[in-house]
Design brief:
The chain is an alpha/beta fold. It is built from ten helices and eight strands. The longest helix is centred in the N-terminal third of the chain and has 16 residues. The chain is globular, with a radius of gyration of 17 Å.
Length: 230
Amino acid sequence: MTQLKYRCLVLDHDDTVMDSTTHIHYPSFLLALEELRPGTTISLEDYFRVNFDPGFLPYCTGVLGLTAGELDRELEIWKDYVKDHIPKVFPGMARIIRRQKALGGLVCVVSHSFDFNIRRDYEANGLPQPDLIYGWELPLDIRKPHPWALEQIMERFSLQPDELLMVDDLKPGFDMARAAGVPFAAACWAYDVPEIRAFMQKNCERAYTDPAQLEALLFGDSDGIQDSTL
């Protein structure tokens, strides 16, 4: 019988479980730019880059110079857009989540999306609801990449760091896992941006371009899976 390799999977949401940036977050951000910074645009590839580093909020404030009021308006535009646009789960991630839960494992989410969007997306895609969610509602000072959420998960379920696996597509998740001493796997299947993949390959023990590779690590013969398989 298959044994759980990690008692708890800690998953990012966008572009790790859900194929969302390309189809939802990027087009909604272009709508915000049309209103808030007319004449300014950004390519999808560069949008992935700025979300990776320096991060979405530092990009908005430091590069675009959005004010607090403009950030509120950007959020309103995004909320209006996501009300009518639900992302689709990566099929391989759906299998992983269902198998983890069927074996009695935990699935938690630490994301820069909102709790209510995460729950809606899981329900709409027929997935079991996460055991815990830590999203954008958190105060900025304990939001990812701060390790607070991982520390809370470990305390809540009496887990040691090596009993968790953090899976994320961007640097904030990597930084959070490293700060908490939690193993990390890079999810590089939503994009093909050379700089991001190069960083993940250099710095992560596990960097995968297909959820099937992660599934094999979790439930199969991990000796047959090479890490940093970019």
